[in-house]
Amino acid sequence: MTEESYPARPIAATIAIVIRAGKVLLVRRANPPDAGRWGFPGGKIERGETLHQAALRELKEETGVNATALRTFTAVDAFDYAADGGLRRHFILVAVLCQWVDGEPVAGDDALEARWIDLDRLSETDLALSLDVAEVAAQAAAVLDENRS
């Protein structure tokens, strides 16, 4: 891809945050941005899709897990840089809190691995996490706690 073919504007994408029994579902990304790092399942929103539909589709494609979308609760930036440091793509990742329905994680589509990670140990893990993963997971847990009250 030449520099001229990179989008001039940010790309809208979703991430699915699924918390179950004190664990959060993460995938090790196969593609940029953050290839090889652990993050939430997600991807670009397709034309005509809602945020929730996109999050659930990406969750299923990347992990095989089925869920129900509960709420959109935050957004974060993700930047894809070229080897020379130039910006290739800027993604805006819209976080959708999801409730697990069924399925156990199996890496598929854009994921190298998929697994449940202890939420309480996320900031202590030796896994290479994408930027904002621990913070977004903590926000999701707080939203879940609010809904239970």
Main sheet overview: 7 strands, mixed
Shape: globular
Mean pLDDT: 93
Cα Rg: 15 Å
CATH class category label: Alpha Beta
Proportion in β-strands: 35-45%
Structural class: alpha+beta
Q: What is the element string, with H for helices and E for strands?
A: EEEEHEEEH
The CATH architecture can be given as Alpha-Beta Complex
- CATH homologous superfamily placement: Nucleoside Triphosphate Pyrophosphohydrolase
* Total of domains: 1
Quaternary organization: single chain
Q: Could you say what the CATH topology is called?
A: Nucleoside Triphosphate Pyrophosphohydrolase
Tally of helical runs:
2
Helix content: 10-25%
Describe the structure using short key phrases.
about 150 residues, alpha+beta, Nucleoside Triphosphate Pyrophosphohydrolase, 7-stranded mixed sheet, 2 helices, 7 strands, about 40% strand
Question: Quick recap of the structure?
Answer:
The protein has helices spanning 51-63, 133-148, and strands at 11-20, 23-29, 38-39, 42-44, 66-81, 87-102, 111-118. The protein is α+β, with helices and mostly antiparallel strands and 149 residues long.
Tell me what the structure shows.
Helix content is 19%, strand content 42%. Strands 1, 2, 3, 4, 5, 6 and 7 form a 7-stranded mixed β-sheet that branches. The chain has helices at 51-63, 133-148; strands spanning 11-20, 23-29, 38-39, 42-44, 66-81, 87-102, 111-118. The protein has a single domain, classed as Alpha-Beta Complex (Nucleoside Triphosphate Pyrophosphohydrolase).
